[in-house]
Design a protein that fits this description.
Blueprint lengths: L4 H12 L20 H8 L3 H9 L7 H10 L4 H13 L18 H10 L3 E5 L5 E4 L1 H7 L13 H7 L1 H6 L3 H18 L4 H10 L3 H6 L12 E6 L3 E11 L5 E5 L2 E2 L18
Antiparallel strand pairs: 1-2, 1-5, 3-4, 4-5, 4-6
Length: 278
């Protein structure tokens, strides 16, 4: 039986802990690293057999009380608890998660109107797979010299950062951006485990070593960077803080607050930060 991400989290976390972490003597031979299953089971107040079923994916419906007890037994911090709880919630429901419809990739006219109204601020609509579904003229003007719109039929932020030759040349904080987009896709995979298109996007990116090295489906992941820093071919050094505005269509309106570095002259910030806040 294929283990769920919840089961993988359990196994990985148990292997990471050491006896001394929970006040046990450090001596003695252990066949495998980490805590024994029985040690975690006792701390959580469950049987070792039940914990084995959870780790092997034979039981995929733990109660909230069991999830909380295991989180405490495994010494999870607040962010890890949140991830752990979501994995428990989705572990038994992947087959029942609806597939996205074509309509979910179609931008409503009301959102298109928002994009137009935001001009001259650069803004675009982002789908769950980091695919850019629509954009306004200001964003197009900014990103065209970066090569982001070379293939207008498949505009995807993660594919650009990991696969386009200009990404490393123009993104001064490429590592932070790469971490951010891997983390965004990781969160999307937890939220929409039944989205085959999302899985295909992630599988394709996994062929790129830099993405595979950053993929942590079981853990808490990286914090998301709030700024992209470009060496723009036409504008020079430009820092771009961004704000994400959720819509009711499983889409987001992303606003790039384009700012030219002080040495390059006057500010280009086009929207006050509070106007773009969530």
């Amino acid at each position: 039986m294929t283990r769920s991400a919840f089961a993988e989290f359990l196994v990985r976390r148990r292997a990471e802990l050491r006896p001394s972490d929970i006040g046990l003597p450090a001596g003695g031979r252990r066949r495998t690293p980490g805590l024994r299953r029985e040690e975690v089971a006792v701390r959580a107040g469950v049987s070792a057999d039940y914990l084995a079923r959870l780790e092997q994916g034979r039981d995929t419906n733990p109660s909230i009380a069991v999830v909380e007890a295991l989180a405490t037994a495994l010494l999870l911090d607040e962010r890890e608890r949140s991830t752990f709880g979501w994995l428990a919630l989705t572990s038994s429901n992947e087959s029942r998660c609806p597939e996205p419809t074509d309509e979910q990739d179609q931008v409503p006219e009301t959102i298109e109107a928002v994009l137009r109204a935001l001009a001259p601020t650069a803004a675009f609509v982002l789908g769950r797979r980091l695919n850019v579904l629509s954009w306004n003229a200001a964003w197009e003007d900014f990103v065209t010299p970066l090569g982001l719109l070379d293939d207008r039929d498949t505009v995807n932020l993660a594919r650009y950062v990991y696969g386009h030759p200009m990404a490393r040349k123009t993104l001064r904080n490429w590592t932070e951006a790469a971490d951010t987009f891997a983390e965004t896709l990781r969160r999307a995979s937890l939220r929409w485990p039944g989205d085959t298109g999302l899985r295909e996007t992630i599988d394709t990116l996994h062929t790129i070593p830099e993405f595979a090295a950053r993929w942590r489906p079981q853990g808490p992941g990286h914090p998301v960077t709030p700024t992209l820093r470009f060496d723009h071919p036409q504008l020079g050094a430009v820092d771009v803080p961004f704000e994400t505005l959720e819509s009711g269509q499983e889409q987001s309106v992303v606003v790039w607050l384009v700012t030219r570095a002080p040495a390059a002259g006057q500010t280009l910030r086009l929207v006050p930060p509070r106007a773009a806040g969530q």
